[in-house]
Structure formats: C-alpha cells, structure tokens
Design a protein that fits this description.
CATH topology of one domain: MetI-like fold
Structural class: mainly alpha
Distance between the termini: 56 Å
Strand order of the largest sheet: 1-2
Strand content: under 5%
Number of strands: 2
CATH superfamily of one domain: MetI-like
Number of helices: 12
CATH architecture of one domain: Orthogonal Bundle
Length: 245
C-alpha cells in the first residue's frame, strides 16, 4: 500500500518537471510566437479595459475626459433600434457564415488531400488567392458584379418584387445581408482550407491501412479516424473564425 501511494504523492512534482521539459524542448516555438502574443496584448486585449472608463464621459477623443455622464451612453445604445438591428445582423452573419464555411472547407480539404488528384496544388492556390487580394479591389469588383447580375435577371423576378433592378442586391433590404454573407464565405474560405489540409496531412497513413485490413469502408474511416483526429484543429478554427466576425 505504501509503495502504491508514493507515485500519486509524487505526481504533482512529476507533472511540473514534465511541463518544464516540454517548455525547454519547444523553446524556439515560444520565441517565434512571442511577437504575436505581445502585439495581441498591446493592441487587442489592453485597449478594452483601458478605454472602458471613457464610456462614462462625454469625450471628443482629445485630451482627458472631464464631463462625467454615468450610464447615459449605455442607456442611449440600449434604446436605439439601429443598434439592435445591427446586433441581429452580426449574429445572423456569424451563425450562417461560420458553419457553412467550415463545412465547405472540410469537404474541399478532403478532396484536395487526395494525392491522385491532378493539379491539386494549383487548386489550393486558387482557393487561397482571395485571402491575399486587396479588400478594396474585391469590394469594387463585386459591387459591379452584383449590380450587373441584378440587371440581367428574368423579368418574372422583377415582377414578383424579389429584386429591384435599380437598387440591385447590395442596396436591397432583403438581399444585402445574404450577399455580404456569400462574399464573406468566399473571401476567408482559404484560411480554413489550409488549416484542415494541414490537419489531414498530419494523420498517419498507417491508421487508414490498418482500418482497410479490418474491412472499414470510407465512411467508417472518416467517422472513426479522420474526424476525431482533426477535431482539435476544427475547434480552434471554430473559435477563431467566430471571434474574427
């Protein structure tokens, strides 16, 4: 009994030493991510609590605030219908875009991960190009595309009032948000695709070979090998893309 109790008593010490060994073994990894961590703390995390006190003042952005107004700004925002409409649009945008984008990225990553697919590197480049394209260029081009599309639809769509040929999609109350969601799915699609491809390429092929010997089909391999092993990456992408909205 005494000997069996000793390992549990020494477990915390072993855990700490194991942690420090892993830190030392991956020291360069921490060095590489240090600039990103510092930038996030300085420009994303710190400004939130640092600027919170300004919400209780009337302030024009210059000098120190002096006119204390308490919760007046919060009440104004809470009773503003435009704010709640914007909030609903943001929630709708995130709820629709994130699952659709992740699902499409996973499906395409499974296709492009096939080593027998010709020109798969070319397709990867094509799908990643929107990420490195200027948002100004994308905005101007897509604006003309949506306007041209709205002006060249069948007449019965105009008669039914679905689309206004003059206002187009982006100026239509019914179609503006779906149009923006569609562009958002397309524009940031490449990020998710690259992450899923990296996760898929990290799965040992021996697992699939062993499953094949056991008689597993493609569906069983996906549910019992692929999906569990890429789930950690998928969770990270889910939280990252949701917070990025």
């Amino acid at each position: 009994m005494a000997s069996s109790a000793l390992p549990s008593e020494r477990a915390p010490g072993r855990g700490r030493s194991s942690l420090w060994r892993r830190i030392r073994a991956n020291a360069w990894s921490y060095v590489f991510i240090t600039p990103a961590v510092i930038g996030t703390l300085l420009f994303a995390i710190y400004p939130i609590p640092a600027s919170f006190r300004y919400a209780f003042y009337n302030w024009n952005g210059i000098g120190e605030p002096r006119e204390f107004v308490g919760f007046r700004h919060f009440v104004t925002v809470a009773t503003d219908p435009i704010f709640w409409q914007s909030f609903r649009n943001s929630v709708t945008y995130t709820v629709v875009l994130v699952p659709v984008q992740l699902t499409l990225a996973l499906i395409l990553a499974l296709v492009l991960n096939n080593s027998r697919l010709p020109l798969r590197n070319v397709f990867r480049t094509i799908y990643f190009l929107p990420i490195v394209t200027s948002m100004i260029v994308i905005g101007v081009v897509l604006r003309f595309m949506f306007q041209a599309l709205a002006q060249n639809l069948p007449p019965f769509i105009y008669d039914a009032g679905i689309v206004n040929p003059v206002l187009g999609f982006l100026a239509s109350p019914q179609w503006a948000l779906p149009s923006i969601i569609a562009v958002g799915i397309w524009h940031s699609f490449g990020y998710n695709l690259i992450f899923f491809l990296a996760a898929l390429q990290g799965i040992p092929q021996e697992l699939y070979e062993a499953a094949t010997l056991d008689g597993a089909d493609a569906r069983a391999k996906f549910w019992h090998i692929t999906l569990p092993l890429i789930r950690p990456v998928g969770v990270i992408i889910l939280f990252w893309r949701s917070s990025a909205r």
